Amino acid sequence: MNYENIFNTAQHAFLQFKKTSGKIKADFLEKIAYNIEAEKANLIPLASSESNLPEGRITGELGRTVGQIKLFAQLVEEGSWLEAVIDHADPERTPAPKPDIRRFLTALGPVVVFGASNFPLAFSTAGGDTVSALAAGCPVIYKGHPAHPKTSKLVGSLITKAAQENGLPLGLFTHIEGGIDVGQELVKHPIAKAVAFTGSFKGGKSLFDLANQRKEPIPVYAEMGSVNPIITLENKLGSNIEALAKAFVSSLTLGAGQFCTNPGLIMVPQVHEDAFSDAVKKEIQDIVGAPMLHEGIAKAYYESLDKLKRKEELEWLHVSSTNDIIKAHPAMAKIKANDWLKEELFQEEVFGSFAILVIYENAEELLSIAQKLHGQLTITIWGEDSELEQSADIISHLEEKCGRILFKGVPTGVEVGFAMQHGGPYPSTSDSRSTSVGAYAIKRFARPIAFQDMPEKFLPDALKESNPLGIWRTVDGEFKK
Amino acid sequence: MNYENIFNTAQHAFLQFKKTSGKIKADFLEKIAYNIEAEKANLIPLASSESNLPEGRITGELGRTVGQIKLFAQLVEEGSWLEAVIDHADPERTPAPKPDIRRFLTALGPVVVFGASNFPLAFSTAGGDTVSALAAGCPVIYKGHPAHPKTSKLVGSLITKAAQENGLPLGLFTHIEGGIDVGQELVKHPIAKAVAFTGSFKGGKSLFDLANQRKEPIPVYAEMGSVNPIITLENKLGSNIEALAKAFVSSLTLGAGQFCTNPGLIMVPQVHEDAFSDAVKKEIQDIVGAPMLHEGIAKAYYESLDKLKRKEELEWLHVSSTNDIIKAHPAMAKIKANDWLKEELFQEEVFGSFAILVIYENAEELLSIAQKLHGQLTITIWGEDSELEQSADIISHLEEKCGRILFKGVPTGVEVGFAMQHGGPYPSTSDSRSTSVGAYAIKRFARPIAFQDMPEKFLPDALKESNPLGIWRTVDGEFKK
User: Fold this and answer.
1) Which of B334, B325, B379 is nearest to B355 (CA)?
2) What is the DSSP string of B421-458?
3) What is the C-alpha radius of gyration for chain A, rounded to an integer number of angstroms?
């Protein structure tokens, strides 16, 4: 593969595309969404067969994929995401006249996006990373995930077709197949200006290191894994043990546990240890193992369990008698908080439907847990209002450890909207200042540029005096349209 | 020095300070500004004697320092910088009810700030980095610059005094003295959550690498140097040769050339080579060398010139006969674009009043220059409107190489306002997505956090339904107050 050619074509496309209107970008995104919907009948069975995910789940994921494309189309057509700011000149100012300065966000340049195996549509070829990068004005060099090659190529062709249909330049999107070495070559290319990745800590960390060792380091947005702890407080849990155990097990085993927000840790007060353990056992025992994405992932799941089985501190609440070549039989172990606190291994993500139930004695121990937790995408806390009030200090610590904190429900099921934050402190992501889901994901692919005393006729529309785009802007410090 | 104790105290202060109201933060900042102004009579001669900068310059810098503190006070008191976003619940939504999600920016945690030698006030102890971090809610562990130790300590005491006077926690600000090893220890401490630095490429890059090698990598905002090219186009230059030569030389030699936006490169069309060279020579010959910040900086300046003097491609337009122990005698050399394009050394910053005049033959050569330029804080282009129109392609490339592009005036003199972008593509800064001057500097020290289904009474004021702060928020996708 001639990467030089691919990147040069992308750079060429970039210089044209960065100045394209929000309307043209929105039409392009809408066309991608249309092409995906039109190909639904082929795409759903194909993605299902390549991922082992049931067609119902893929149908939902396709809807989500189309929905998030439309969200970005809406965002760029409206245009206020550009953060336009105008400080007018003051020629009379002393001791020196004040210049006219106008600032907005401009696209970074061609970016490299990696597909994820667990969402063959929503976090893959036309997933949130690709689409938010295109929306920002960045051409995408996309490395397809080898677990779903046909789905990836098919969706890639739908993006290319959309670009052609809309008369946009070649090189806005390039689909590349290959392994780890190919991904590394892409990240190292001098024209690449950012990287987006969803996957394992090991994979994300290695790309992060590679990107920082370049002559010109570039940002890496890696979403790397999280155990998404659920903290239960005494009264709330006590009055709902069975319902909460059911909700928890359902979230744990959804999609064979292959979600980045899968809850792999649950903290339970000692007083409810037996009742909650029993309720969980009752819920989990009838769950039939579901096929995982591929055999390699199933193998890794059982290897992680085998490693944990050698740890004497763990008491196993549920585990299938035999390992499976493809299915993830759910598993759960229990541990005293005092032992959990001593061993980092118990915080490592096991990709699949496995969780550790941590029994804590009192609020002091729970505070120690909160302080010890690694960075997470999400943390959930189930408590009565009065308990939450008493736990203010603990909650304050938990906030430091996550990107999203939930007070009801379960962490799986990530809303695509304006307020979503899907990105937490390290090591859950490489950059807690960013989100890979929701409207703000577009900001990852832009940087500010200021124009000083630029003649009005050369200014981008977003910064022209008359505000032809009708967007929200900060003018001399005031927010206005 | 017991760093453990310092960081623990800062972390303790952080957990309290992050929830402090914008009003309390603003009062604290205003008190710092007040204390600095009240100490003016001591501070100005002290900073002047330690930096060799004239009292007039220090007086201006003090005004700027106070002005930027007040800008951040205004920003946090108003509160819209928090980027509050609310997506309301929809319990009726199918197939699953929609949760209530609210997002805003929260402070990163304790941060390490390094002082700069060339701005003993505005980029030092109570400079833009410290003040924007405090405004965001981050305690600051500040490493004073050894070039102005007494100024640094005095300003540090004024910040501490402001915290005490306003009843704020110990540990919000700590002043530390020491060399490179001390700075490295601070950056490596696990409690540190970000680093801000202004100085040399070598210094910034080493902190960037160190921060990325931590178990938990943290963002480094390093402003590292730039040659701030000025591009002149034929007609504009031809009709103003003497005035533009004067403006250029004045910017080049201002403050002994010790500004990060000092213009170290100027591109001139061949047709004006002789006239512009003559005009520059005439302007520069009478400029008396001014004392640099310290002898080490003067030594480095002359060493850089000696290195360049060995380059045969350079023709020297002006150079003092002898090197000086402390004063920066201005110097200028001339080169053909064709030779300039071949050698990276000619793009390296020489800290002081030295510039290279690059003679280009035609638009094609100018385009090659634009493509070859390293990342810059600023690029200035002087052209008639009709010339700018013809140079659209060149300007498009120049935009990719800088954080601020000027169409009038000179790059020195950085406005502190809402629209300022002082941060450009690598290697001018380590993070082109950030600015170290102006209102947006505060965003460097915050990250988003989302609250899902949090009971109203526990929500931060910025996210409460009734909008008690009266700030601009995105509610269900619409901007409103």
Assistant:
1) B334
2) ----TTTTBS-TT--SSSGGGGGGGEEEEEEES--GGG
3) 24
Give the C-alpha separation, A403 to A435, whole Å: 9
Cα separation values, A392 from A374, A387, B286, Å: 19, 9, 67
- Give the nearest chain B residue to A88 (CA atoms): B419
Q: How close is the nearest chain B Cα to the Cα of A37, in Å?
A: 19
Give the tens place of pLDDT for each residue, A80-119.
999 999 999 999 999 899 999 999 999 999 999 999 999 9
CB contact under 8 A, B99 and A454: no
- The confidence score (pLDDT) of residue A1 equals 59
DSSP B386-401: HHHHHTHHHHHHHHTT
What residue of A is the nearest CA neighbor of B104? A419
> Within B214-270, where are the H helices?
234-238, 241-253
Tell me which chain A residue has its CA closest to the CA of residue B74. A477
Give me the half-sphere count of Cα atoms (radius 13 Å) on the Cβ side of residue A230.
27
User: Which is catalytic among the residues A61, A138, A260, A365?
Assistant: A260
Residue A241 to residue A24: CA distance in whole angstroms: 53
CA distance B99 to chain A (A): 8
Name residue, tokens 């289904």.
Answer: B453
Split chain B (481 residues) into runs of 10 and give each run's mean pLDDT.
Answer: 90 96 98 98 98 97 98 98 98 95 98 97 98 98 97 98 96 96 97 97 97 98 96 98 98 96 98 98 93 96 96 95 90 98 96 97 98 98 98 98 98 96 98 98 98 98 98 97 93
Do the chains contact at A415 and B101, CB–CB below 8 Å?
yes
> Which residues of B, range 433-452, sit inside 8 Å of A by Cβ?
433, 435, 440, 446-452
A98 touches chain B (CB under 8 A): yes
pLDDT of residue A219: 98
Instruction: Kindly list the distances between the CA atom of residue A334 and the CA atoms of A91, A318, B242, in Å, as whole numbers in the listed order.
Output: 71, 10, 81
Q: What pLDDT score does A2 carry? A: 76
Nearest-Cα residue of chain A relative to residue B72: A477
Distance CA B204, CA B195 (A): 10
Domains and CATH numbers, chain B: 3-224+432-480 (3.40.605.10), 230-406 (3.40.309.10)
Using an 8 Å CB-CB cutoff, list chain A residues near B111.
Answer: none
Active site residue A260: yes
Strand partners, A223: A198, A429
**ipTM exceeding 0.90, yes/no:** yes
CA A259 to chain centre: 10
Going by DSSP bridges, is the β-strand pair B473-475/B478-480 parallel, antiparallel, or unpaired? antiparallel
Which of A373, A441, A414, A429 lies closest to A224, judged by CA? A429
The mean pLDDT of chain A is 97
Helix (H, G, I), strand (E, B) or coil at A291: strand
What pLDDT, in 10s, does the model give residues A18-36? 999 999 999 999 999 999 9
Alpha-carbon span B329 to B348, nearest angstrom: 19
Catalytic residue of the set A223, A283, A349, A365? A223
Q: Is B223 a catalytic residue?
A: yes
The pLDDT value recorded for residue A320 is 79
Contacts of A203 (CB under 8 A, 6+ apart): A180, A197, A222, A224
A385 contacts in B (CB within 8 Å)?
Answer: 455, 457
